[in-house]
Amino acid sequence: MSRKPVHLAVYDTFADWETGHATAWLARFGHEIRTVAPTTAPVTSLGGLRVQPDLALGELRTEGGPDSSLLILPGADLWDTSDDLAPFARTARAFLAAGVPVGAICGATAGLAREGLLDDRAHTSGAATYLAATGYQGAERYVETDAVTDGDLITAGPTEPVAFAREIFGRLGDVFEGEKLDAWYRLFHDSDPAAYETLNS
C-alpha cells in the first residue's frame, strides 16, 4: 500500500538535531520525506546545512485533507524573533482539523501555542515558563515529561529528539511498535546494549 509522504518543515535557523532520528528511521522504513519551506529558495539550518526545499508551503495541499501522513515542525530561532513562521502554525491547524498528525519540537511548540493549538491539548516543551510567555491559555495542560502525544499532536522539548521520534513512531504505527519501540528508545536514549538484541530479533 502506498503511503502519503511525510512533510518536514525547513526554514532558516531550523534546528538540525531535533528531527534527524525521526526522519532517518521513517525513511529507512519506506516513508518518503519531503521538505517544505516558506518558498523554494534554499534555507540554512542552525548547523549551517544548506537545504533545497522540495516545495513551498503554499504548494502543500490542506483543503479537503492534506496529501501527507505527517507534518514535522522543528524548532528555529525564527519562531521567537518574528512572525515569519506563523503560516506553518496555521498549516498545522489545518492538518489537525483533518486528522493528520503534527509533530512540533522546541520553538515550534511556542508557534503552536500562539496559534491556540495547545489550549485544549496535553503538551510539553522546553519549559512551562517558555510557553507561558506566549500568553496562551493552555498552561494547565502542560506536562513535565520528555514528549507528549495527545491525539494527532506530538510535542517535545529541544533536548528530546529521541523521545520525539519515539512518539512519532508510536503514532504512525508502521516503524516500531510495542517491545521493539521500547527497545529502540532504550538503545538510542539510554545506550542500553541489551536493547540492540531485542530490536534486531
Q: What is the topological layout?
A:
Blueprint: E1 6-9, H1 20-28, E2 33-37, E3 43-44, E4 50-51, E5 55-56, E6 70-73, H2 78-81, H3 86-97, E7 102-105, H4 107-114, H5 128-132, E8 147-150, E9 153-156, H6 161-172, H7 178-190, H8 193-199
Parallel strand pairs: 1-2, 1-6, 2-5, 6-7, 7-9
Antiparallel strand pairs: 3-4, 8-9
Helix pairs in contact: 1-6, 3-4, 6-7, 7-8
Characterization of this structure:
It is a single chain. The model has no long low-confidence stretch (mean pLDDT 95). The strands form two sheets. Strands 5-2-1-6-7-9-8 form a seven-stranded mixed β-sheet, sandwiched between helices. The protein is an alpha/beta fold and 201 residues long. The protein is built from eight helices and nine strands. 35% of the residues lie in helices and 15% in strands. Helix 3 (86-97) crosses helix 4 (107-114) and helix 6 (161-172) runs antiparallel to helix 7 (178-190). The radius of gyration is 16 Å and the shape is globular.
What topology, given as strand order, has the largest sheet?
5-2-1-6-7-9-8
Structural class, by secondary structure, is: alpha/beta
The overall pLDDT average reads: 95
Q: Per DSSP, what share of the residues sits in E-state strands of 2 or more residues?
A: 15-25%
- Termini separation (Å)? 25 Å
The helix/strand series, from N terminus to C terminus, equals EHEEEEEHHEHHEEHHH
Please give the radius of gyration in angstroms: 16 Å
Query: Which percent range fits the helix content?
Result: 25-40%
Shape: globular
| Separate helix tally | 8
β-strand number: 9
pLDDT < 50 runs, ≥5 residues:
none
Biggest beta sheet attributes? 7 strands, mixed
Oligomeric state of this protein? single chain
